[in-house]
Design goal:
alpha+beta; five-stranded mixed sheet; 4 helices; globular
Amino acid sequence: MSDITKEAVTQLSQKVGTFDGSVKFVIENEGTIIVDEAGVREGDEETECTMTADADTFRGILEGDVNPTAAFMSGKLKVDGDMGTAMKLGAALS
């Protein structure tokens, strides 16, 4: 697990904890993180939704400096799968 994914797991655990749904965050060139009813952890299993971004975009979203919707609209954040689940997690991160 890279330092970036370790920090992301810590921050997401504090912000979201458990989540009614399943989302995979793919941090390009760093690793993947799962958020679901079991909590937040590094992993790469199937989920309802996959969000992909580079490390800087992902860090900005976690720190509140980057709006997830703006990142999506500008192409910095890619979303595959259930958009409703993505929006639900976006609300939980706010």
